């Protein structure tokens, strides 16, 4: 009984922390299992952990230092920064908290309903950095896998937080494919892309697209010098291609099948080495 009450209290904390979403009481079953709801814990961490804010400020401070170094070098083409939107400049943890409170995952309908509110918070440090970049003559392009029907609300949300270059010319949405390489190439035709910002490896280079977990890690190792200089990564434990890769990008799996795959991917140590309770 005490564990059930404790879980209920934690879930209410998550809902209260959603600054832009009205809390709705979840079912007793969902509340009782909150401690095992990974997405909810990730949303709670993103909303309430000072460590999360510290990582974001750290990433954007590093970005500014690297940009200053870049601006000391000559450039034939005008400079540009390419950034992702979700969990890079806009915080969607309220959506994850609401969905996970009912043990529901992502669906297009609920996601579109969320983004139509134009109510996402800003990621710590993002606005200040991009405003600084704009003040130094660096244009900002937002390459996102949001859809065309989300354009108006997305621009409204960016404008709400006074992000620079929040206009149709600089917002590049998903069209035919989620791969961002062709869209990055379209910007590179006229600009020197000096920095890329994102929370997912696919925000940085094609080599990460639809690769298996070990291959993604190997690609990170081969490009390690780019991270912290040209590639600036923001933390996101709620979702991403890291999770999709574990299930081989199969969106048709049942929750039970996903659970089995995730458990099989997790490293532990032999049970006989677990210390006995005193």
From TrEMBL:
Any signal peptide, and if so, which residues? 1-23
Going by the UniProt record, its keywords in alphabetical order are: Lipoprotein, Signal
Per its UniProt record, what InterPro entries does this chain match?
A: Acid_phosphat_B-like, HAD-like_sf, HAD_sf, Lipo_e_P4
Pfam families in UniProt: Acid_phosphat_B
Matching Gene3D superfamilies: HAD superfamily/HAD-like
- State the PANTHER family in the record: ACID PHOSPHATASE-LIKE PROTEIN (PTHR31284:SF10)
- What is this protein's record name? 5'-nucleotidase, lipoprotein e(P4) family
What are the top taxonomic ranks of the organism? Bacteria, Pseudomonadati, Bacteroidota, Chitinophagia, Chitinophagales
């Amino acid at each position: 009984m005490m564990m059930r009450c404790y879980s209920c209290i934690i879930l209410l904390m998550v809902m209260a922390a959603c600054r832009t979403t009205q809390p709705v009481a979840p079912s007793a079953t969902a509340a009782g299992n909150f401690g095992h709801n990974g997405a909810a814990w990730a949303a709670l961490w993103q909303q309430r952990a000072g460590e999360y804010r510290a990582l974001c400020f750290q990433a954007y401070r590093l970005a500014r230092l690297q940009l200053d170094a870049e601006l000391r070098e000559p450039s034939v083409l005008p400079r540009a920064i390419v950034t992702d939107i979700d969990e890079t400049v806009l915080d969607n943890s309220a959506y994850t908290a609401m969905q996970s409170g009912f043990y529901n995952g992502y669906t297009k309908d609920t996601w579109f309903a969320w983004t139509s509110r134009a109510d996402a918070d800003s990621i710590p440090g993002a606005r200040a950095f991009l405003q600084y970049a704009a003040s130094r003559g660096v244009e900002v392009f937002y390459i996102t896998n949001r859809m065309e029907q989300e354009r108006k609300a997305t621009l409204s949300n960016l404008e709400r937080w006074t992000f620079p270059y929040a206009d149709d010319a600089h917002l590049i949405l998903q069209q035919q494919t989620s791969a961002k390489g062709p869209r990055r190439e379209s910007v590179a035709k006229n600009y020197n892309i000096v920095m890329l910002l994102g929370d997912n490896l696919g925000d940085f280079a094609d080599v990460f697209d639809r690769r298996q977990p070990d291959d993604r890690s190997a690609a990170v190792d081969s490009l390690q010098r780019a991270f912290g200089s040209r590639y600036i990564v923001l933390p996101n434990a709620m979702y991403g291609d890291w999770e999709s890769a574990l299930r081989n990008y199969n969106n048709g799996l049942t929750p039970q099948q996903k659970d089995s795959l995730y458990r099989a991917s997790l490293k532990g140590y032999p049970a006989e080495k677990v210390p006995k309770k005193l």
